[in-house]
Write a structure and sequence with these properties.
With 76 residues, this protein is α+β, with helices and mostly antiparallel strands. The chain contains two helices and three strands; from the N terminus they run E-H-E-E-H.
Length: 76
């Protein structure tokens, strides 16, 4: 059995987003502008935005945090 290592950012937040039809380009552009704000928050460890291939306008946002407290105080 291999020892498990705790990742440097062990908290993974998963957010399902549903946007209005026809607004994907504007949403993605706005998200690119907002990304540096998210990245500046305490305990931030990275994020990924994934577009659903099967349901138009649906996205999965994954944000990594150092602690649960960091996630709790993040406001976005």
């Amino acid at each position: 059995m291999r020892d498990c290592e705790v990742p440097p950012y062990p908290i993974l937040e998963a957010v399902m987003l549903q946007i209005k039809p026809g607004t994907a380009s504007a949403f993605e552009a706005a998200f690119r502008q907002a990304s540096p704000i998210i990245a500046s928050m305490r305990g931030y460890g990275g994020h990924d935005l994934h577009r659903c291939l099967e349901i138009p306008g649906k996205y999965l946002l994954l944000v990594r945090w150092e602690t649960l407290e960091d996630r709790a105080i993040a406001s976005y």
